[in-house]
Amino acid sequence: MRKQIATIVVVVAAFGLAAGLMGLQAANTDPAEAVKELNALRAKTLQEARESGTRVNLAALNQEIETKAQEYCKGVDATKVQPKQGLAWAQLFVLAKMQQSACDAALRYLTLDGTAKERFEAQMIVLDSCRLLDETEMLFSTIKEAAPGDKMDARNLGLQTAYYYADQIAKENGVHTALVVLADVEARIPYDEFTTESERPLAIGVKYAIVSKRADLLMRLGQKEDALGVIEALRSQLPEGHATIRRLNSLATQLEQIGETAPALHVERSHGKFRSLDAWKGRVILIDFFAHW
Q1: Average confidence score pLDDT of the chain
Q2: Number of structural domains found in the chain
């Protein structure tokens, strides 16, 4: 009996020692320095590859950084980190691909009155974590509060909303809500501040992304004419010959074809039974367009 008790005491003591060491490691970790070290590792690896003319194994590099970041994060309770270190911990958790912890740490930082740039970065970490965790309710509330620190932040929010957030909101909250969110986010983008030659294409790029997503959402509501209208509205703002006009024309052509009768597509082939699409009228046909280079 005494031997069993001694064994239990030893096991408990060992567990306590391990937990203490993990806590000590967490306490001794400077998250900002850890993030700096891991970013420097990435930059050095890419620079050495450029100089040597070799190809980087990005999957291996990302895995190495993820593993190192996870070691730094071991034993850290994101809900209890110091708020002033919350953003740095959130960045480290992102590198470790620990999305829930990244979100929790960013929320800790957001309890402070930090700089506009840092608060927006924390909000973007929350938004991306919510997207990956499929936490649409928090994503929806955070995107309404997101306050870009400058025009580039506003552009980034617009792109992320067009590429990712709008679809998730449409799925959970409806297409009409997604359209409202998209319009609200675009209203925060100061397009008139993109004045230099290098900045103007950035503004047009986010305009195109938002118009494309708005047209897509309108098509889901069966509002083809409205979808074509938003495309035409952007097209009319661009100078003749602008490269984006070609993209808009292609997008409009795709939308115009939806719901219309397919062309006959007469094809001369040396094998197979297909001769024209109209000969198969009444059947369900899957057409795969591909090309070889």
Answers
A1: 89
A2: 1
